[in-house]
Design brief:
The chain is α/β, with parallel strands linked by helices and 254 residues long. 36% of the residues lie in helices and 24% in strands.
Amino acid sequence: MQWDPTQYLRFTDERLRPALDLLARIDAATPTHVIDLGCGPGNVTTILKQRWPAADVLGLDNSAAMLDRARIAAPDCRFAAADFGTWQAEKPIDVLYTNAALHWLGDHDILFPRLVGQLARGGTLAVQMPAMHNEPLRAAQYDVVAAGPWAAALRGVGSAQSILTAGQYWDILRPRCKTLDIWETTYLHALQGDNAVAQWASGTSLRPFLDALSGDLRDGFFAAYAELMGRVYPRRADGSTLLPFRRLFILATV
């Protein structure tokens, strides 16, 4: 999948808010080794450095385009390419922060214990993931995939898998953690512009489908999805489009 930093940052304020909410809940005074796993364009990595200026802050991502943007956004931080599914820290981590990244990976019953196992004593795992898989924003993508001339080209193409339930994450993490806090928040994003919800999705969950298409098929697929989203999430009288967006937060210390 090819990430587009410019498209992703089109709704910077809305995407940044849950990242900041997660950061505000981390109780770590002077961490030495901080990881931003799935750092994207680095707009949160630089905030981590501002919060802990003495820490070695390392941003990891699997997108070269995102890493190029991140190095500009956060010149005081280090960055490296990494496969989240197999990445192993060089030394114990004091704060392992990951915002809107882990939902792209499967096998969370294996992944999360592995991440917690890389924490230093007293270290924190801080996670935020979208929990929208049953909402029209996500579910309708597969309806559109199956209903047009692009269906054959998109056979076998999928987006991020459904995450586990809060209870399942509790059962996985509680035996391995000293403290554990899990909560959900639904944000009511007031998006601006034409085809706002489709534009939002094209920066994240719609990308695998768009990347698999080109030319008229790509344009037609996006138009069909945008038309459906316009009916599900209509514009309000002031021109805004309201998108309720639920997110799952996990804060674990060892």
